[in-house]
């Protein structure tokens, strides 16, 4: 369901568009410079896989290594800038109720599910499927998928480099907000994973709200 609300004052007009993304579903949008995207974890403990591209040249896209290097931190929170593979800013996290989001856990796929959880999981829907289906609307294919962000996903990294996927840090109603620094294309997979705790073993809906540039 998508709703649009327009608020008028004597000097400005602000348009807000809200969409509820069902459990396991994909979503996408193009944002203009200064527009904001607020992601709300409606029920808590739901991972939201996320990719972002330059809307006019999708060869310019989110780069995990450049983002990590630029901020000197594996985890994202308020003030983190999502950098492109050209080391230019795509979006900035302007508000965050959770405080830590994953950059290294990647997107689940049929192949990774089979490797980690057994051949009986092959038929299960995965984030890569969502990214491919949604990205195809914009001419994107498998070669265009890169290491993604996992909003709300809890992937602690130990000093020896060991990492795992554990219970999330989020709870119902917590939000994060990103500001577009240029025209960007955002792809989202509302993660369908049921074999590890990233979604509390029960995927749920999330909400996407696009706000005006102010």
Low-confidence stretches: 6-11
What overall form do the CA principal axes indicate? Answer: globular
Count of alpha and pi helical runs? 3
Q: How would you sum up the major sheet?
A: 7 strands, antiparallel
Order of helices and strands: EEEEEHEEHHEEEE
Would you give an account of this structure?
The protein has helices spanning 64-71, 110-117, 127-135; strands at residues 2-8, 13-21, 26-31, 36-41, 48-54, 81-83, 89-96, 149-151, 174-180, 184-190, 206-211. With 214 residues, it is mainly beta. A 7-stranded antiparallel sheet has the order 1-2-11-4-9-7-6. 12% of the residues lie in helices and 32% in strands.
In short:
The model is unreliable at 6-11 (pLDDT under 50). This protein has 214 residues and is mainly beta.
């Amino acid at each position: 369901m998508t709703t649009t609300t327009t608020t008028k004052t004597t000097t400005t007009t602000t348009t807000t568009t809200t969409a509820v993304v069902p459990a396991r579903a994909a979503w996408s949008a193009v944002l203009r410079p200064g527009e904001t995207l607020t992601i709300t974890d409606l029920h808590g403990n739901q991972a939201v896989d996320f990719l972002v591209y330059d809307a006019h040249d999708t060869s310019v896209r989110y780069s995990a290594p450049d983002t990590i290097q630029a901020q000197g931190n594996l985890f994202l929170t308020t003030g983190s800038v999502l950098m492109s593979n050209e080391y230019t800013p795509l979006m900035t996290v302007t508000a965050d109720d959770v405080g830590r989001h994953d950059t290294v856990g990647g997107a689940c796929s049929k192949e990774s599910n089979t490797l980690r959880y057994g051949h009986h999981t092959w038929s299960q829907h995965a984030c890569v499927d969502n990214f491919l289906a949604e990205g195809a609307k914009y001419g994107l294919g498998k070669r265009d998928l890169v290491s993604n962000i996992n909003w709300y996903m809890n992937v602690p990294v130990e000093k020896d480099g060991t990492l795992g996927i554990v219970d999330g840090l989020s709870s119902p109603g917590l939000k994060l907000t990103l500001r577009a620094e240029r025209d960007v294309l955002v792809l989202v997979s509302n993660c369908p994973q049921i074999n590890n705790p990233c979604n509390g073993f029960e995927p749920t809906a999330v909400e996407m709200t696009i706000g005006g540039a102010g």
